[in-house]
Write the structure tokens for this entry.
Amino acid sequence: ITYLPENVCNLCNLQTLIVSGCNSLEKLPESFSKLKNLQHFDMRDTPDLKKMPLGIGELKSLQTLSNIISGGESGFAIKELKKLQNLHGKVCIAGLSNVQNAMDAREANLSQKRFTELELDWGYGLNVFRKETHDKEVLTELKPQTDSLKKLEIVSYAGIEFPNWV
């Protein structure tokens, strides 16, 4: 399976969607935001999926979102996480090198999320010439809640110094 068909989004009462292990999955439906009752979305181990559908931040019932792929200007903006107030558990945020502005990282409001495991991945980046100072600013502004955090993994990070919350 290389893409999830659009008609999946007609399942308006769908609460759990698991595409974990779909190694060839490249694309999610454009109308993904129609899944208003979706609570759990597991997309672990989908290495060919490089982009989140627009509007995923509108899924207010979402509690579990295993992977988040930041896409910069044309994809999922990290600041959309602000709207997902019930998000918790284990999360991987990839594509942090695509974050356009460090203030977008602050606006994601990770300090309000009760993550137990958090992976911050600068990979999948479109901008390989990003300045190291920008990466450090993004990392500094993410500021996840540390009370519930049991595991933190930082991947493909070019910066040398870590902010005081790490």
Notes: Residues 77 and 160 are 25 Å apart (CA to CA). The chain is about 10% helix and 20% strand. The mean pLDDT is 87. The longest helix spans residues 132-142.
